[in-house]
């Protein structure tokens, strides 16, 4: 009598082994895939509400007008709530200035200032604290001029010893926008620059470790969902992010006197939290 063939049994074993390997590879990819804060990861465009890991410390809700901000500075200008001109993100802040100077000593600006919470102003003042600031911006019209600057976002210092903002996002009339760092001795370093595309949404997240010591504080930046390499080639730059009594941030348009004409900055989904995922637009 012929012995029964073992080929079917071997085939079953091979099949189960293959499935096991597929499962192992799937788990490996799930646990070891590119995280959202690496330079290679780019968020796909989406109109769906973003998923957050935790509630942010602060979020600007256009339904409440300008109440979420500690203040607004309109010299001259106005901050209003409009429907997203691009038709993607619903109610949106519009910060508009006619561009006509109030007087010779006052530079044109229309900006929000700081964040107001139920517990009072949210200010960045404690050594070692880590914050992430996320938002969407769209600009247009936005006159620029080579050799002059327009500040679109800044981390501004307040209190005794206040001087040049430690960080500012600026357009300089060359078709780009850059992130500028000013150290405690007021020396400037350009950390990053990218294309300034008008009438199109840009998303940003700025990560900050608060410190007056440039060896302890740091800055990180994400643009359109991708971590950006900063000066020196790394995604994290050591910096003194705390100056004077405290720092807080401002959105809008603030510019040197050489730039003229009406300008509008749109702001959407602005938030402050303790982690990237809490505030990423």
Automatic annotation (TrEMBL):
- GO MF annotation: an example: lyase activity
Report the superkingdom from the record: Bacteria
* Low complexity bias: start-end ranges: 39-54
Q: Say yes or no: keyword Lyase present.
A: yes
Q: Which InterPro entries match?
A: Polysacc_lyase (IPR025975)
Q: Which UniProt keywords apply?
A: Lyase
Q: Which Gene3D superfamilies match?
A: 2.60.120.200
Region (Disordered) residue ranges read: 30-54
Protein name in UniProt? Heparin lyase I family protein
Organism per entry: Streptomyces catenulae
